[in-house]
Amino acid sequence: MTFQTFLDFFAQYGYLFILVICYCEYLNLPGFPAGIIMPGIGVLAGQSDLNLLGALVLSIAAGTLASLTIYAICRFGGAPILHKLFGGYPKFQHFVNQCHERIERHGGRALFICRLIPVLRTIVSIPAGLLKVPVHEYTAWSAAGIACWNTALIICGYFGGNAVVAWIS
Question: CA 105 to CA 128: how far, in whole Å?
């Protein structure tokens, strides 16, 4: 597949592609690293007819929706589901505990700050759900952090995209 073919595919399914890939990334699925995906969205938006603002808004909406999905699972399923899924990963549990402590100490502001820290930014939904942070507070602080993170990375890809495309082509 050539780079042009990929751009054509992205141009045809661009907004749907952004929605799906960002949703999967914020579900913390393996193989979806934000450090590649978000700048990649910027590069592709810059090389296609997609609107940069539209790409940003969709990425934020998808990230917030996926984060709410994890939050709801943990809020209503609780610790048993978390233990069943990740009980054998002590490092993961360490990150969850870090987020948990920060949320208890700083409330909603901790959600925003955790959204800006790699690893913690996708895990913070778990302790927020377990602590039953009010959904409106969780959504507002998380969306603000997701907006900052996604905007920074997508803008970098958008404005640095010509160099990347020249290197790939």
Answer: 12
Q: Give the model confidence (pLDDT) of 35-57 as tens digits.
A: 778 888 888 888 778 889 999 99
pLDDT tens across 91-131, in order?
Answer: 767 777 777 788 888 878 888 988 898 877 888 888 888 88
The per-residue pLDDT for 6 is 59
Q: Alpha carbon 70 to chain centroid distance?
A: 12
Which residues lie closer than 8 Å to 112 by C-beta, 6 or more apart?
141, 142, 144, 145
Cα–Cα distance list, 89 to 18, 24, 54, 94, 168 (Å): 30, 21, 37, 9, 37
What is d(CA 134, CA 169) in angstroms, rounded to the nearest whole number? 48
Question: Residue 147, Cα to own-chain centre: how many angstroms?
Answer: 9
DSSP 29-90: -TT--HHHHHHHHHHHHHHSS--HHHHHHHHHHHHHHHHHHHHHHHHHHHHHHHHHHHTT-H
CA-CA distance, 132 to 128, in Å (whole number)?
6
